[in-house]
Amino acid sequence: MITQTDSGPTTLPTLLLSGITKLYSGVAALTDVSLEVARGEVHALLGENGAGKSTLMNVASGIAQPDMGLIAIEGSQVSTLTPTLAAQFGIAVVHQHPAVMPDMTVEENLLVALPPSVFEGGNIYGVATALLADVGLTVHLKDRVESLSVAQKHLLEIAKAFALKPKLLVLDEPTAPLGQASVDLLFARVRSAVLEGTSVVYITHRLAEVRELADRVTVLRDGRVRGTEIVSEITDGELLAMIVGRQLESTFPPKHEGDGAQNLSIEGFSGPGFTDITLQGRRGEIIGIAGVVGNGQSELLRALAGLEQFTGTVTVNGMRLTTKSMVRDVAYMPADRHREGLMMSLTVRENAAVSALSRFSRGLFLSRKQENQTVGDTLDSLAVKARSMDADVSSLSGGNQQKVVMARALLSEPTLLIADEPTQGVDVGARAEIYRILREVSASGIPVIVASSDAKELEGLCDTVIVMSRGHVVDTLVGGAISEERMIHAAVSSTTQSVTAISDTRAASQRALDGDADRRSAVRRFIQGDYAPSALLVAVVLGLGAFVLTQNDRYLNDFNIFSMLMLVSALGFIALGQTIALLIGGIDLSVGPLAGFLVVVGSFFINDDKPFGVVVIGLVVMFVIAMLAGLINGTLIRIGKFTAIAATLTMYIALQGLSFILRDAPDGYIARSATDIITFKVGPLPVAFIILILVTLALEFFLRKRRWGWNLRAVGSNEESARRSGVRVNATMILAYVATSGFTFLGAIMLMAQIGVGDPAQGVSYTLTSITAVVLGGTSLLGGRGTFIGTVLGAVLLVQVLNATTFLGLSQMWQYIFQGVLILAAAVLYSLARARKKRTLA
């Protein structure tokens, strides 16, 4: 409901939040918070991690509903704000953790998140390319988002926000992973938008950015407003005191003085993205790695952690490290805490303790008391804010999650500590604590290497800084020579050729055409895409068919082709429905019993002695039952909060029981006229199979080119990101289960014609075989990716294998062996492909 306030049109703020209170499990995240954002101003929002900044903006964008308070947008009071309604009001949010769907392409992420009006004119490619260029993002539109770096994902999120031409733009830590060039471009875009009347809420931990960009600033602490000031009228010291509730001493601890013993030597270190890195470190020193983001820094750190192949030597305290010892003894804090740093389904305690479990072991058991004490002390030293150590780590703010990553690194008692962007998304108070702890770790004799895109941070923290450009060390700064200016100058003035460029130059003589690189990229995208398993299945089907034909020339006679394709039709329709369930990250175990139950129901209506009207009523009853089964499954999962397995297994048992209640033995023969219609054929091809192919192609089109398919895959790829992008998650998932049951109904029609009788024992096996067909077709059991074409090809291969054993004179045992081998091969190949891609892209 929307009501108009009485304020005059010239004084209406773009956003007014008044008396906002938000509770989570009875704990106040926000208490009586008010915020007013004027038209055409940049309003900074500051506070420590957990102060309530992101929660307040979730309220302002409709992601979270306040327990108390008022929301008004341009004078219109909104009683219930949703992400969809917020978008209609012109509110766009760049989240601290980008709301992107990793299993979808860059182009699809834009299409699912942006309204069709953005792409008016039909030139989607041109519009999408322009949107990315506007924020300096140079990636291929067909690349999967999971292949992008953290910075690229943020730029994609920023591009989506600016594409909406919003009235209110919320930027939550947008510059944390960005290099200076990207930051400059972002600030220029923000200033341009402000000149056009856009209001901006800017959440950051960097006071320098507040000075550069903001007009006013509001500070939150412990979920309450501590003050709103004009930026030009308040000092940094006063702001820090408001943020942390006390006066802070110098952010950086004193640097190391004197010459400590050498404890680190890296010689001739080369790997993917960097080459010939040589440096030495001494006890008490912190080594920094500077340079424009994407010039080999992260690759170097991953190699030092044993996560990338390398050549050269690394010696720590006189001991040369091997890849195995690096993985075991080096503590690595990755820049992407969600992808590599944390296990989001585990608790805070479990995440912090996982690398140090040997410290808490007592024989074969762990001492929970010692674990709680040690982990608790470490978390307290970092001022981690959580409801308890047993709270899910996903419930913490981004900065507190970063502190948990550091806690795990410290608890592992490493021989070498490597930190990639250790203070990314961390508030000023906690930064000082992290700097102090890094200094103490170094003083204890453990070498510390820090990479940061913040040159000021490296200047204040480090004793030695190497500057990297295109994979090379272009300058080494020591002591008083370390300055922001020197680092930036060395990075931007370098003329070194990139490591990748060198490799490309060496390979250039072997290329016949300039388009080879583009073609290789296209091949790579295909291999890593959804259709590669389908291509492999086609090859296997053709190869198996050719082999069986050499053994038995009756293999391709009309009767056998018809029989196989009828079996494929029944399995294919049921598997198409199963594909929909798996695409959203679910599963439907009830499809087999549902198909069998529908046949049993039909056996009471579709008989030779029944009039046509009764037959139609029977088909309608079967269809209604299927729709109700899907609706119940979806409702149990989304509203009842059942897991997909629990809900559909319950339906499985219920339907199977009902089948035996209706018929305790096969009975009720299906009308011959109905069977003849269902099995009608053109040559050796059943019309049912032709319909299956047409339906599959239509589904594939909608999966790739229409919002229905984008929404399905978005929910399966990342439910929370889909919700933030405006997808109606509950409706999408419930309707997906209804659709699954709808296709099971079509499969039951095929099954009815095949068995010709109401048999309560039939149908159950289709649960396993449908899942097998879907997995063989390349659909992920985790959701978000897959194809309907691959599913049908998987069904074809399964039926072909069963048929081939008969023609080859093999026993039924071989049918199960071949099915098991196919499932295992599909799972292994899929896992290897995903793992290889992750290693390549990390």
UniProtKB/TrEMBL annotation:
It is a multi-pass membrane protein. GO terms for molecular function: ATP binding; ATP hydrolysis activity; transmembrane transporter activity. Residues 15-247, 259-495 form the ABC transporter domain. GO terms for cellular component: plasma membrane. CDD domains: ABC_Carb_Monos_I (cd03216), ABC_Carb_Monos_II (cd03215), TM_PBP1_transp_AraH_like (cd06579). Its main location: membrane. Pfam families: ABC_tran, BPD_transp_2. Keywords: ATP-binding, Cell membrane, Membrane, Nucleotide-binding, Repeat, Transmembrane, Transmembrane helix, Transport. The chain crosses the membrane at residues 529-549, 561-584, 612-632, 644-662, 682-703, 734-757, 763-782, 789-810, 816-833. It comes from the Bacteria. It is found in: Cell membrane. This is Ribose transport system ATP-binding protein. It comes from Salinibacterium xinjiangense. The lineage of its organism: Bacteria, Bacillati, Actinomycetota, Actinomycetes, Micrococcales.
